[in-house]
Amino acid sequence: MTNDIMPGCEPFSATNGPEGVLVLHGFTGNPASMRPIAERLAAAGFSIALPRLPGHGTSIEDMQTTNWQDWSGAALDAFDELASRTKRVAVLGLSMGGALAAFVAERRDVAGVVFINPLVKVPSDELLVGLQALLESGIETIESIGSDIKKEGTVEASYDATPLAAAQSLFEGVRDVQENLVKITAPILLLSSREDHVVTSDNGDEIVANASGPVERLWLENSYHVATIDNDQELVESSALHFLETIFAS
Fold first, then answer.
1. Which label site among 31, 58, 135, 148 has the fewest CB atoms less than 10 Å from its CB?
2. Is-contact 198 123, C-beta < 8 A?
């Protein structure tokens, strides 16, 4: 494995006030897509942990050696570390980061959850069977799922391919997340892009239908999947900030 982190893809943390926010990036992505919102929340006085998940932000070869257990374990470790230096912690995640945010919220006492185009629903059996067939035929990667961004000229610093074994592990993890959404009792802000070519909006529907905590849903009309750096970036950041300030004040 290589330890060379791609420029701009480093983890980020800030120690400020007694309220913390764990920020989690997506599959084949890295902290770069979440850095603006993490810095916005830090500037508002929150303590922040934005980890670089195992296998991300270096090389596709690194990622091919990691799986859901590695990513979910890293998310829990980051939550526990942040909780050790704050009074309360909320979690915020994009895409797979949303699945990890749900995973953490199902297992820890969180103040609130911000989901941005989260993956929390197992794909169709047809897709899973097709994925298994590709793996059995010896195909290890397919085209990249990164940079689903509507804003002209904006490119996500994600991998240029999608590792299939890692994707299969992700879906296995998501199955557990989906089955346990009822355990999330904290308030939820759900941000859903109206047009998303990576994660369908019925993933958000799953949260609305099954989470036990109150859910506020906001539709993003001018962004695709990576909404944190798309046309609705300001709306994403300001609504997340308002939600977090509100739950921490209660």
1. 135
2. no
Active-site residue identified among 62, 225, 230, 232? 225
Element (H, E) at 92: strand 88-94
In a 10 Å sphere around its CB, with 0-12 CB exposed, 13-18 middle and 19+ buried, how is residue 44 labelled? Answer: middle
> Quick one: average pLDDT of 236-249?
97
Quote the Cα angle for 14-75-88, to 5°. Answer: 55
Examine the residue annotation and report whether 225 is marked as an active-site residue of this protein: yes
**109 included as an active-site residue:** no
Of residues 196, 223, 230, 232, which has the active-site annotation?
A: 196
Instruction: Catalytic residue, from 95, 147, 158, 192: name it.
Output: 95
CB atoms within 10 A of CB 193: 26
Q: Is the pLDDT of residue 199 over 70?
A: yes
Q: Is the pLDDT of residue 46 over 70?
A: yes
Which structure tokens are listed for 233?
């970036």
Q: Is residue 1 predicted with pLDDT exceeding 70?
A: no
The pLDDT tens digits for 143-193 are 888 789 999 999 888 888 999 999 999 999 999 999 999 999 999 999 999
Q: Does 242 participate in catalysis according to the annotation?
A: no
Encode pLDDT of 16-43 as tens digits: 999 999 999 999 999 999 999 999 999 9
* Domain spans of the chain, in order of start: 12-249
C-alpha–C-alpha distance, residues 219 and 221, integer Å? 6
Instruction: List, in order, residues 6 or more apart from 195 with CB less than 8 Å away.
Output: 150, 224
In whole angstroms, give the CA distance from residue 4 to residue 149.
26
204 to 57, 114, 188, 227: CA distances (angstroms):
27, 12, 11, 14
